[in-house]
Write a structure and sequence with these properties.
- This protein has 330 residues and is an alpha+beta fold.
- It has 2 domains: 7-140, 2-Layer Sandwich (60s Ribosomal Protein L30, Chain: A), CATH 3.30.1330; 156-309, PurM-like C-terminal domain (Phosphoribosyl-aminoimidazole Synthetase, Chain A, domain 2), CATH 3.90.650.
- It is built from 10 helices and 12 strands.
- The protein has helices spanning 4-17, 63-81, 99-116, 165-175, 181-191, 193-196, 202-208, 222-233, 255-264, 282-290, and strands at 25-27, 35-36, 43-52, 84-94, 119-127, 131-140, 156-160, 214-218, 236-240, 270-275, 294-301, 305-309.
- The strands form 3 sheets. Strands 8-10-7-11-9-12 form a 6-stranded mixed sheet, with helices on both faces. A 4-stranded mixed sheet has the order 3-6-4-5. Strands 1-2 form a two-stranded antiparallel sheet.
- Helix 1 packs parallel to helix 3 (99-116).
- It binds adenosine-5'-diphosphate and magnesium ion.
Length: 330
């Protein structure tokens, strides 16, 4: 920030524009630290994630979408444990003190914080390349959290929503330079929400407590995140490629290309969970009660690794397996 006054004004603006009533805020923005009251008999659940411009979102992403997404990706982590979100801390690194930009950012943030009952209770504001770091805090009954470990051979593998849409949009935006401006604009209007507006599956996560044997949110791609769950659980998985749920934007692609997006594309923020067969009837109940797509995409097996079976009975091996920040890019 160029001067202290600017920083102070920005913080006041954030405080004003993000005001959401939430339980347990004894002291919020304005002092040196916040004081939160954790309800008796509950544990605190904490997750943090950073979004860097050009890495986690295209540089032309609107501030409104950035404000939404920085909260959404963290709520998705709380959802994976089955927690209920309550509070958030926001560290903002901004190239300049731009109150217009900030107004859009806080509007996007609030559009998710409000319905989820999440209060922004503190943070930090600095100058530098655009980077947003958010810490989400929530609560859960002790011992009830869903873990990556806990899957057993024979469990069903289930995912919410659709897979591969965000990665497809990102590719279209990046290859888009050669398209006519109009077609580019159309594509962005129609489908960018798949990339910019992931829906944290909070209700689903909470409903899975007591039923699912393991759970993870898919942020880096199905194979990568299922791989984490399998490692933690000490087992293997068999997937059926024709059962992977596809968003409309993937329809019309060749099978191998569509499967690659679904298996390896990142940024979907859907939940992947394993369910003992004895609870299989719950899938129908959750679909209806939560108005959510749930697809059984495979089964947990003994051993290690992931085997993806195509409809022809042949194993399918995608070229990419997921997003890794520290992998060399060709
Ligand atoms: P300190 O220098 O003591 O860390 P600051 O001047 O950075 O305090 O912050 C003053 C208050 O504003 C604190 O309550 C802090 O949590 C809050 N705050 C600062 N930046 C943000 C932000 N980006 N979002 C939410 N709260 C913020
Ligand atoms: Mg201080």
């Amino acid at each position: 920030m160029p001067e202290n006054m600017k920083e102070f004004e920005l913080i006041l603006q954030i405080q004003r524009e993000t005001l959401v009533r939430a339980q347990g805020v004894k002291l919020g923005i304005g002092d040196d630290a916040a004081v939160l009251e954790i309800p008796a008999g509950q544990d605190l659940v904490v997750a943090t994630d950073t979004l860097n411009a050009g890495i986690h979102f295209p540089v032309d992403t609107s501030p409104r979408d950035i404000g939404y997404k920085c909260l959404a990706v963290n709520l998705s982590d709380l959802a994976a444990l089955g927690a209920t979100p309550r509070w958030a801390l926001l560290s903002l690194s901004l190239p300049q003190a731009d109150s217009e930009w900030l107004r859009s950012f806080t509007a996007g943030f609030r559009s998710l914080a409000e319905p989820c009952g999440v209060a922004l209770v503190g943070g930090d504001t600095t100058s530098g390349p655009l980077s947003i770091s958010l810490t989400a805090l929530g609560v859960i009954e002790p011992g009830r959290q869903l873990l990556r470990s806990g899957a057993h051979a024979g469990d069903l593998i289930v995912v919410s929503g659709t897979l591969g849409g965000a990665a497809r949009i990102l590719d279209l935006l990046q290859d888009g330079a050669g398209l006519s401006e109009r077609r580019r604009a159309d594509r962005q209007r129609l489908d960018r929400h798949l990339l910019d507006r992931p829906r944290p599956r909070l209700q689903l996560g909470q409903s899975l407590v007591g039923f699912a044997s393991a759970c993870i949110d898919i942020s880096d791609g199905l194979l990568a995140d299922l791989g984490h769950l399998l490692k933690a659980s000490g087992c293997a998985a068999r997937l059926a490629t024709d059962s992977l749920p596809a968003p409309a934007i993937l329809k019309g692609l060749e099978d191998a290309q569509r499967w690659s997006y679904q298996l390896a594309g990142g940024d979907d923020y859907e939940l992947l969970f394993t369910l003992p067969r004895s609870h299989a009837a719950m899938i129908k109940i959750w679909r209806k009660a939560l108005d959510i797509d749930l697809s059984v995409i495979g089964e947990i097996e003994a051993g290690e690794g992931i085997c993806c079976m195509g409809p022809d009975g042949q194993e399918f091996r995608p070229q990419r397996t997921g997003f890794d920040h520290f992998r060399k890019r060709s």
